[in-house]
Write a structure and sequence with these properties.
By secondary structure, the chain is an all-alpha fold. It folds into two domains: 1-83 and 94-195; 200-448, no CATH class. It is 72% helix and 0% strand. Helix 2 (39-55) runs antiparallel to helix 3, helix 9 (222-245) runs antiparallel to helix 10 and helix 10 (250-285) packs antiparallel against helix 14.
Length: 494
């Protein structure tokens, strides 16, 4: 195991490390509020796995960081704080525990599947290049890297694991879980850019970035809504990685990779802020259904302010951190027709997050009781810290990214944002009444890519369940098959 030294980090990598540590600390505190004592250890391991991915100098260490993230997340998701159920409610508690356990198992299966594909790429890389140091991946291993990263980053149609898991996991756990796994997958792609480029990655990721926000617009669960927005933002990072492979010069390619990592920095901050806000809202009302809440700006003014900052950053409001990294992404994504797809992504993201704001804080006040004990000074303080980071990241982008040229703030960029965002805001009022009456699962959004994704997901889960209940002969056969695959890989026979 070999590690990079901190002195070898570029400015944007140092920003990544600082943000990972801050968000990791917030996540550990939030997770410790709702689980068994052992979950604190799993949370610390999860943060360590994310940080280790930044220091990894060889592919084996990078794979270890993937597995640390997967196993620790499995333990966090599965953790359920035992409570004394109300009379007659025992079956409800047991059902919730069962769903949590199933979600944890499915999460682990998918993450291990991604790691297996990445391991195959490592074997191919070693058999051809004779080294496992983090470097440009050989063309023969590109397919396996793309497959592993697509699963890890929850790219459509391999997104079901993220939406399903995030939709059932406790909101306090999501603050931590949403910070590392998908981002580490995207950063892995950025570190292994091959000389010949990732074939098809650019347009595949651009399509996901354009589609995912529109899958979010009609969601009624806040957690599911933010899950689709998260997928779109990670796809933007992969678009930048794809652009870097087709750049005419090394400097242009390097700027694209810096833009990708810079967007990860900002995305982790404002996305974590939004999940902290969701945690506080759910603590207040007891659920995450947008149709059954509203008017929380009166009882939660501080949280509402933090939500406004997080949404503004996510949709690219000028002088917030999301605007800064998206402007840099626009500069490097000078590809014909790509701008149209990214504009579609921006509009969809804005509509989805406006629905969240309107439904939770600015809609009609719900008739349901909202007098639950929602006191959580640690989460409120975390929201304040993250909102401040969103502002500082927008005001001082050169400090975080290390990029001074091209200029991030231009008159044209600010003017375009100030025209587009009000237009989207007016558009929201044109469609908000229609969306407020849509039942979850009945719209076209839930029907997108159902067959391919569902069949692949069922096939992998079937194999996993079979392995869990198989006898020793089945495991022996699997071990022999794995040995044959490894032998062929090391011999360079593919």
């Amino acid at each position: 195991m070999t590690l990079l030294s901190f002195s070898e980090f570029a400015p944007v990598d140092r920003s990544l490390l600082v943000v990972f540590l801050i968000v990791g600390a917030i996540g550990v505190v939030s997770v410790s509020e709702g689980g068994r004592p052992g979950v604190l250890i799993a949370a610390v391991v999860h943060v360590f796995g994310g940080v280790l991915s930044l220091f990894a100098e060889d592919l084996i260490t990078l794979l270890v960081s993937w597995e640390l993230l997967a196993v620790s997340a499995f333990l966090i998701i599965r953790t359920w704080k035992a409570q004394r159920p109300a009379p007659g409610a025992e079956s409800v508690v047991v059902g919730a525990v069962d769903r949590r356990a199933q979600a944890a198992f499915r999460y682990l299966v998918v993450q291990v599947s991604a790691a297996v594909f990445f391991f195959i790429a490592i074997v191919i890389q070693y058999s051809i290049a004779g080294s496992v140091r983090v470097a440009a991946i050989v063309p023969e291993a590109q397919f396996w890297v793309i497959l592993a990263v697509a699963i890890k980053a929850a790219m459509i149609p391999a997104h079901g694991w993220l939406v399903t898991t995030y939709g059932i996991t406790s909101v306090t756990s999501l603050i931590l879980l949403s910070a590392f796994s998908t981002k580490v997958g995207a950063l892995t792609a950025a570190r292994l850019v091959p000389v010949g480029g990732y074939t098809g990655l650019l347009w595949f990721a651009a399509a996901v970035a354009a589609i995912a926000p529109w899958l979010a617009v009609k969601q009624t669960s806040i957690r599911r809504l933010l899950s689709y927005v998260l997928i779109a933002q990670v796809a933007l990072v992969l678009v930048a990685v794809g652009v870097s492979t087709g750049s005419a010069s090394d400097s242009a390619g390097g700027l694209a990779l810096t833009a990708a990592r810079f967007h990860v920095v900002n995305h982790v901050v404002y996305k974590t802020l939004l999940f902290v806000v969701v945690a506080l809202v759910v603590k207040r009302v007891g659920h995450d259904d947008l149709r059954r809440m509203g008017g929380l700006r009166h009882s939660m003014p501080i949280v509402c302010t933090a939500a406004l900052v997080g949404v503004g950053a996510a949709i690219g409001f000028p002088f917030l951190n999301g605007f800064a990294s998206k402007e840099l992404l626009k500069h490097v994504m000078d590809v014909p027709n790509l701008g149209i797809m990214l504009s579609v992504s921006t509009v969809g993201t804005a509509l989805a997050l406006l629905r969240f704001l309107d439904g939770a804080f600015f809609g009609r006040e719900s008739s349901e009781s909202t007098d639950r004990d929602a006191r959580s000074p640690a989460l409120v303080a975390s929201a304040g810290v993250l909102a401040l980071l969103c502002v500082l990241g927008g005001l001082f982008p050169a400090v975080l990214s290390g990029v001074t040229e091209p200029q991030i703030y231009t008159t044209a960029g600010i003017r375009a944002a100030l025209i587009l965002l009000p237009a989207v805001f007016l558009g929201w009022f044109a469609v908000r009444r229609m969306l407020q009456v849509v039942s979850p699962g009945n719209g076209w959004s839930e029907a997108a890519f159902p067959r391919l994704g569902a069949r692949l997901y069922a096939m992998v889960l079937g194999w996993a369940h079979g392995a869990r209940t198989a006898d020793s002969r089945a495991f022996a056969g699997l071990a022999v098959l794995l040995a044959v695959v490894l032998g062929l890989g090391l011999a360079g026979i593919w």
